[in-house]
Amino acid sequence: MSQIWFEEELDQFEIEVTMQVETLRSNAFDYILTPEAAVLPIQHEHDDNCARAYLERITPDDSVTVFAAELSLAVNRDTVSFLNRLNRQLFAEFSHMHRETGVPQSPAFTLQSRSGACRDLAVLFVDCCRAEGIAARFASGYQKGNLQSERRHLHAWPEVYLPGGGWRGFDPTHGEAVADTHVTVAAAAHPRDTMPVTGSFFGEGATSKLDFTLDIQVSED
Predict the structure, then answer these.
(1) In the prediction, which pLDDT does 180 show?
(2) Around 185, how many Cα atoms within 13 Å sit in the side-chain half-sphere?
(3) Can you give the CATH number for the domain in which 133 is found?
(4) How much is the mean pLDDT over the chain?
(5) Residue 201 in this model has a pLDDT that exceeds 80
């Protein structure tokens, strides 16, 4: 993390970042769960201190609790089946929109409206997982997507901690488990801790606007 202070008045500030990343995971399911993780809720006896922050629900709501419980019961509380069904249902039954600004919607609002941007679906997914005893976090980064699109955007998706598999991503915006098409830049228990740029200014009449350009190139070598 870099911090910058300005002692003089500025009318523009530009940040340029270049990254070259090699992805190695081609199989999103190359793991075997430990016995205690196969059935929900997962018992985190051996990693309780690490998992606690990722199990605490931010804005618990009965409607989300019931929604998650019904999904869990429908698959006999099987952990992997629950995650796959939740991922597919948020992809197939929710309207996906693009929202460049604003904090994520509450999980209950996204569930009720059946609509949201990638960060909204990620927050709902995380809350459903935590309601069923799965440690989960909010991830922000980049996704391969449509390389011919005129304007690319930062992407968000959930990651869950599975004993025997470690942290594993799911992308309800695209209905797929995360493998080598995603690059995580930041992940945290709360979405606010994954913001790429934050700041403040002092003075009357001052305003700010953030704009960006993003170019993603993929090598198949």
Answers:
(1) 87
(2) 18
(3) 3.10.620.30
(4) 88
(5) no
8 Å CB contact between 105 and 136: no
Q: Is the pLDDT assigned to residue 18 strictly greater than 70?
A: yes
Could you tell me if residue 102 is inside a domain? yes
Alpha carbon of 131 to those of 41, 60, 162, 175, 204: distances in Å? 9, 8, 15, 21, 44
Is 21 part of any domain? no
The total number of structural domains that make up the chain: 1
Q: Which range has the top average pLDDT, 1-5, 165-169, 178-182?
A: 165-169
Q: Alpha carbon 48 to chain centroid distance?
A: 22
pLDDT-derived band of residue 25, with 50, 70 and 90 as boundaries? confident
Is residue 82 included in any domain, yes or no? yes
Is 55 contained in some domain? yes
Q: Would you say 161 and 126 are in contact if contact means Cβ atoms under 8 Å apart?
A: no
Q: Which residue do the tokens 């929900």 mark?
A: 40
Residue numbers of the domain that contains 177: 37-193
Contact 59, 125 (CB under 8 A): no
Which tokens in the block code for residue 30? Answer: 């190359």
In angstroms, the CA 70 to CA 81 distance is 13
HSE-up of residue 206 (Cα within 13 Å, Cβ side) = 9
Q: What share of the chain is helix, strand, coil (3-state, %, to 5)?
A: 30, 15, 55
